[in-house]
Design goal:
Layout: E1 3-9, H1 15-23, E2 26-32, E3 38-43, H2 44-51, H3 54-57, E4 61-65, E5 68-79, E6 86-93, E7 100-109, H4 115-118, E8 123-126, E9 130-135, E10 144-147, E11 156-158, E12 169-170, E13 179-184, H5 187-213
Parallel strand pairs: 1-4, 2-6, 7-10
Antiparallel strand pairs: 1-3, 2-3, 4-5, 5-6, 7-9, 8-13, 9-12, 11-13
Length: 224
């Protein structure tokens, strides 16, 4: 399903013009790539709610610019330091024949049935939330699934274990041995077990010392 967003060409530029747009509940932006950059403006509320959707950040978007549609990628946006207000947004035009570089979110599945959780009492930690991938626009996935169903206590899922969709490759800074998720016993449980063992050892030593210090019982005298 294609994610759509509407915009209009922006006629005026500059800090003052952008400030006036924001007061009118509009967001200034730019579309660049494959030709000249185009200054645009978008409805703030529609854009704000679109940005809350995961697919908006990792999908090919259909930008309706004054009735003419073109394929774009979200490249950057700025939020107000403390208000829930989008300040600016950047889109990049997509060439169907050129590969794109995108961050794709990871979706973790079957963590609740992993042996390390179900029988080992461990907790799964997600080391990575997304992967940087390179692919043609038509091959860009909205997410990549990571199956945790076989994860044992003390073990990890590595990048080499993640099955990538057809036509998708990882960016060069990723390494096969990098951990994606791991399952470990909670630190508090480890510390509690160590404290219990230490207390038991102290109690055992005290009992042994007490037994050693007790006076020996005299043997009964045999009657003649």
């Amino acid at each position: 399903m294609t994610v759509e967003i509407s915009a209009s060409k922006r006629q005026v530029q500059g800090t003052g013009a952008s400030r006036r747009l924001r007061k009118a509940n509009l967001v200034p932006g730019v579309v660049y790539g494959s030709g000249e950059a185009t200054m645009i403006e978008l409805d703030h509320n529609a854009l704000y709610f679109a940005l809350r959707k995961e697919a908006f950040h990792a999908s090919i978007l259909s930008l309706d610019l004054d009735g003419k549609k073109e394929s774009v990628l979200l490249r950057d946006f700025q939020m107000h330091p403390f208000r829930q207000q989008v300040q600016h947004i950047d889109f990049q035009r997509v060439d169907a024949k050129k590969k794109v570089h995108m961050q794709v979110p990871l979706h973790f599945a079957n963590g609740e049935i992993a042996p390390g959780v179900k029988t080992g009492g461990g907790i799964i930690t997600h080391v990575l939330a997304d992967l940087d991938v390179i692919c043609l626009p038509a091959d860009l996935p909205t997410s990549i699934e990571v199956d945790l169903g076989g994860l044992e206590l003390g073990h990890s899922i590595h990048i080499a274990d993640v099955k990538l969709p057809k036509g998708v490759e990882l960016a060069h800074h990723h390494h096969a041995v990098d951990a994606v998720a791991t399952v470990q016993v909670p630190r508090g449980a480890v510390e509690a077990a160590a404290d219990a063992a230490a207390d038991a050892a102290v109690a055992e030593a005290a009992a042994a010392a007490s037994a050693a210090a007790a006076p020996a019982t005299a043997a009964p005298v045999a009657k003649k």
